[in-house]
Amino acid sequence: MPSSTQTPLVLLVDIALPEAEGVGAAFIKRLGGFHVVLVGWFEVPEQTTAAQARDQFNDEMEEALQAVADRMREAGAAVETRLVFTGDRLQTMERLSSEIDSDAMLLARPHEAIERILVTLRGWPHAERIAQVVARLIGGDAATVRLLRVQAADEEEGGVLSFVANKLAEAGVAEDAIAIEQLVADDPAQAILEQARRHDLVVMGASEPSRHDVWFGAIPERIATNASVPVMVVRARQDTASTAA
């Protein structure tokens, strides 16, 4: 678990209501280092406005959302909640993330355990923050981290994988739990999706630095939408982003 002196990172976590699947014990036990903003979203049916859906389902959805929040609080997580009625999950999460200035967002999907974490890295703007978020997720528990960079044949890796591996080790992650790999692929998103099937969680950086208020470019959106496992998107910060090259 994280030290009590660490400043909690703000993590936006979404759950689909009313089923509220995707935030089970495996995730909850890893959230002690985060301030969780739990977003319960109800998909607005076609030919129904968000206001109409809220009028009809608000009490039922609020009860389902608070039940999940209570389980998180019982496990020691600091939690606040937001209930939204929307037809566009990613757009809503992106908007809320910018509004609350979150460090990362978790697009939850049902999964039994979080033991094999796939971290995809493209460049430096997110590197240090990704290492910080992953270290908080792991805490003192056993987990493996695979650092992956998918690149074109003529690209150079530039040292970002070793940089993040060193940061994780400095944060207390066992060195033998960290693996580094580079892949060459014409379709990076598809290559990452194929690798994701063998893991329990994908962690990746947002598409642009946070000053642009953009999270999802073409590749991150494909992964977030199509991955079969939960996906965490980490936001770069100007005060922590490495400028190394």
Describe the structure.
With 245 residues, this protein is α/β, with parallel strands linked by helices. Helices cover 33% and strands 24% of the residues. The protein has two domains: 9-107, HUPs (Rossmann fold), CATH 3.40.50; 116-234, Rossmann fold. The chain has helices at 25-28, 50-74, 89-100, 127-138, 160-170, 188-196, 218-226, and strands spanning 9-16, 34-43, 78-86, 104-107, 116-120, 144-151, 178-184, 201-205, 231-234. Strands 3-2-1-4-9-8-5-6-7 form a nine-stranded mixed β-sheet, sandwiched between helices. Helix 4 (127-138) packs parallel to helix 5 and helix 6 (188-196) packs parallel to helix 7 (218-226). The longest helix has 25 residues, at 50-74.
Topology:
Elements: E1 9-16, H1 25-28, E2 34-43, H2 50-74, E3 78-86, H3 89-100, E4 104-107, E5 116-120, H4 127-138, E6 144-151, H5 160-170, E7 178-184, H6 188-196, E8 201-205, H7 218-226, E9 231-234
Parallel strand pairs: 1-2, 1-4, 2-3, 5-6, 5-8, 6-7, 8-9
Antiparallel strand pairs: 4-9
Helix pairs in contact: 4-5, 6-7
Keywords, separated by commas or semicolons:
Rossmann fold, nine-stranded mixed sheet, 7 helices
The number of helical elements comes to 7
CATH superfamily of the largest domain: HUPs
Structural category is alpha/beta
Roughly what fraction of the amino acids lie in strands? 15-25%
User: What is the H-and-E element order?
Assistant: EHEHEHEEHEHEHEHE
Describe the main β-sheet briefly: 9 strands, mixed
| CATH topology name of the largest domain | Rossmann fold
Question: For this entry, what is the oligomeric state of its chains?
Answer: single chain
Q: Please state the overall shape, judged from the principal axes of the Cα atoms.
A: globular
Low-confidence regions: 209-215, 238-245
Overall domain count: 2
